[in-house]
Amino acid sequence: MGFLTRLLAGLTAAAALGAGLTGTANAVDTTGVMADTTGTTKSVVKLSDDGGNETSEDTADNPDDDSTDADSTTDAGAQSDAGQQAEIQSSTSQDKATAKSSLPDHIVNGSFDYPACPDGKNSCDVDPTTGWGGFYVDYGRKFMPIPDWDRSKFGWDSSQEGLRPDQQPNSHQKLQHCVQIGNKPNNNGQKMNRFAEIIAETPDEYIYQDIATTPGVMYRWSLKHASENASHVDSMQVMIGSPGRETAQDATRTTSNGRGDRTGVTSKTIATKGGQAEWETYTGVYIATSTVTRFTFKSAQGRDSTRGNFIDDVMFTKAYKLTYDRNSADASGQVPSNQRGKENTTQPAKSKASGTVKTVADDTSNLPDHLINSDFEYLPDGGWKTISARYDMASAYTSVDPNNGQYIRNTRHADSDTGTAWVDWDGFDSSKFAWRTDQKGGQDQGGLKDRANAVELQQDSVDGNTYTEIVASETDRTIYQDLATIPGTLYKIRLKHASLCKDNVDKMQVVINGTPIEMTRVTANGKAGDKVGEKSTTIATKVTNVDRWHHADQWETYEGYYVIPEGQTTTRFGFKAVNYLDPTKGNLLDDVTFARAYKLTYDKNASDATGRVPSNQTVSSDTDGTVKDLVQRTTTHEDGSVTVKTIDTSTDVVSGCQVYYPAGQKITLATMAKDDDCWDSSMLTRPGHTQLGWNQDRNATQAQAQVTMVEGGMTVYAVWVGNPVLTYDTNKPSTWSGQMPSTPASISVAYNTAATDGSGWRAGDTTKIRGYKFLGWYSTPQDGSGLYDWTRPLTGNVTVYAHWQRLQANVIYDKNASDATGSHANTTGWQYSDVTIPGDTSKSFTRDGYVFKGWSLKAGKADVVYKDGSQIPLQDKDITLYAQWQGIHENFTETGGISLPLLIAGGIGLLVMGVGSTVMLTRRMNGHGMPDGE
User: Fold this and answer.
1) Is the dihedral of CA 437, 440, 444, 449 positive or negative?
2) How many distinct helices (H) and strands (E) make up the chain?
3) Spacing of C-alpha 875 from chain mean position
4) For residue range 329-386, what is the model confidence (pLDDT) as tens digits?
């Protein structure tokens, strides 16, 4: 089939699919047997491409037959009891955009509840193309219109081929496209449960839905599966891909019915022990590569050719990337990793040297950002008929010189010519061809020298498919394209590979910027024992064909991942031959496709923030600047998230990761805590600010602990808040008129963090203000408030106040003689102030034979300093005053007078005056040695 013919046929079939009407496949793609699939398999019906990079070259149509099955109509062949016949109408041709726009973006009727089977019927058939249903009636079948039929509510289609011409309508056969719905009680035997049987009347068939998908988005699917009864373990496969390119998916059993199956087992074949209603649940993930994806559920082996494989509750959720954003233009550092289970980690590269890996020119101005001509179908007008002068030849080949747009016109088989020639390709557009090689040129190709950078194209002798040979005329060469790439972008690489013939296992590598990429075989041709799921940096495909021009059933599909390193805006995607049949033959490549996804990014969200944000993707490099020993691996988790890790196999260091989360999945964002992970809040700073966490809103003032993933992915931004300030107030006492000590400097503390007292002041200090004791820092200036709680986290500015206690001192009165009697209460006053000695202190003490003279600051006999009523200045400690006594036989000296002896006799004081004279004092002395009245 020519390219234009295939394109038109593909458009017609896509339109039929999108309109939800009939429309059969226009080609058959034999996928072969999966390694872990039991029973026989059948060719997968291929519908049109969805407009992505994948194409339909590997069809089995006649290359010159422009007709397609999608343009045909099919008689259903089934009649009602009245002999009515349902005619299945084919859809008209529509463009691919219209087909996609009419598709749902979700699984429809995953519970198989629409339409309801009639009461009392344990199964029914639904023909989605006509809206007729068939119901069991005494082992016969009766088809009739389904009341208020709504095709959009049913959703399902099947690969059922329908009645053969020799079959009767009431035979045990379905109409074309029919889906069988079971209708039986659930486990409690009460409520009826509806489910699908795949497909009970025809072995190795499948049911499916086509969904509008977003390339790069991860879809997490789940379903319930049961065998028809316990006598046989039914098995099936979930096959997903763009229509016609479905591949078997890994399925993990997440629930067990207790019949011996273990949960956690992963396989491409779903098999359930037990009977009907003993359901087990299976889940898996798929990253979409195109805008239309077929979700297919295929019988691998049933109880017999017409029975088995019940499924129910088919559903899927979409997963998107979560991005952390620093939320500031000048913040620097790392944001949290989005690696599942380590959301507050960073995974920095173990870089051995600085520098950016560059193996191609770093000029992206003229480069495409996607793969061009991935199916190698861009040919001169007239295609292979132009390339070959002999129109009826079964196969052809050519080399294309991308430098000047010439190609080899192969006329060696024409009757009138025996040579080959390089000829101009009229209208050649290098942007549509895109491929180049590192071929040096000058090799002999059948009498004609090959050219530098030439790319060889070949045509399959049976189905007309075009592919490339890497590189047929020289050894160890690479075919490649240079693309403009965005650092952090994830590429999912998918390609088909075949060896030239059974004489040799050809081998190749996907080499991106000089690094071999680990690839996984996702389909096997079933010819020579290759197994799906095998991983290696070297692709090797065993084949059984003898014809070196026929490979339609020999292809195997491989997938791998590559994340663009930081700073790498140009990337060379190359495909290198490493082993081949002989130095010029082998390694066939076709249908190279990419699916792009983008990294989760944390944003610092502040122009003045500095430090690191958690890394999402970095790549380790060797001292010569080349990436070394890196592989990328994917891990699917129970919650539906998928991690793609980059691992340096030489050190086993995880250099980076990318996580996809299902829409609706709750995600715990990176915490700010310092723990066993390698990122915490200390690594990202902003002057005068504290990071509270992360939020979907760039202008948020509060952090989110969790976010719920939305369709299309998201970015989370750093949430900043100004640091609170703790201010000191010395709180001058009203009774103090002197100068206060210097106020301690204010303290800026991280938000929601307790401040540490930086004043240096200690409670009980009596040196700050004379006569006062510092009691500590309090919450308010008023007395009675509590001490400030230094364990209190600050979320706003706060002031602490000094509290003071005015100190007192005592005047203590000492009788200053063991034979004196009496006492007097201390006189108390404020330190560093004057206090008055009470007027009765002299009357509080007595001493026989002595007269009280006053108070002294010294013990023993000393000068009188203070008397009753005197002012005495207090200091910072108590003062003791000592009583001063004068005996009555001592000389009594009056001011300015003469020393006279004072005698006390019988209470009468006698003053001796003059020589030989005695003067009688008639004043009576009181009891404490003083005259009455004193």
Assistant:
1) positive
2) 5, 66
3) 72
4) 777 777 776 555 555 454 433 333 333 333 344 455 588 989 999 999 999 888 888 8
